[in-house]
Amino acid sequence: MADFFSITYNFTLPEKQKEIFKLVFDTRTIELQNKGQTDPPEWTQKNFEQCPHCSLDSLSHPHCPVALNLVIALERFDHLMSFEKVVVEVIDSERRFVQKTTTQEALSSMIGLLIAGSSCPSTHFFKPMARFHLPFATRDETMWRGAATFLLFRYFTESGIKESDLNLDGLAAIYHEIGQVNKSLVQRLRAATIQDSVINALVHLDVFAKYLTPPLEETMKSIKLIFDVIYQKKN
Fold first, then answer.
1. Angle CA 161–166–172, to nearest 5
2. Is the peptide bond before 135 cis (omega within 30 degrees of 0)?
3. What does the pLDDT look like over 76-87, one tens digit per residue?
4. Is the pTM of this model over 0.85?
5. CA distances to 18, 36, 80, 189 from 45, in Å
């Protein structure tokens, strides 16, 4: 297995200028290897709009790991409004995606990767999803991937899947926590941005996170319908 893998986002902006991000990840840790600024901006400091549940030590982590990963997006997209149209090409080792969409939706897809590729403990659950990245995932695809990742996570633990895992309460708790991270990040970005594209990209991502908070029975109805044909054949 290779030590690193990469996912490249090529943006064609409204005036035809290009922005290219080749995101390199450690295959074992799924952490972003792209080096940021040697002197990160003030809004990345750990105690700046810090998450209320943050468990990281300030001495070893003077800066928020997630905020550090977002610097590259902010630096190069802060001049764009969220509704402006862009063309995005996403390339990994297996396939290529092309999508014409708004700046906020395009950035939202990449920002999800940047967040998952941080060393923040609240983002660790999302690393397998980053490893098998699906750009521009829909609501149902997000629910599918979240639930499948949670059950596989429990399957690979020493105790395996327990009956208590099947109601997905643990998944809801994970998404509630990442919602708190997103809320704090929005506050950080409001102090750092001129235009709204990066902020709205994060808000767009947070909307997807809210799909996997209680009541899951209601939000997962569209996924359940896919399995109805299996139940019908068995009966």
1. 110
2. no
3. 887 788 899 999
4. yes
5. 30, 14, 25, 12
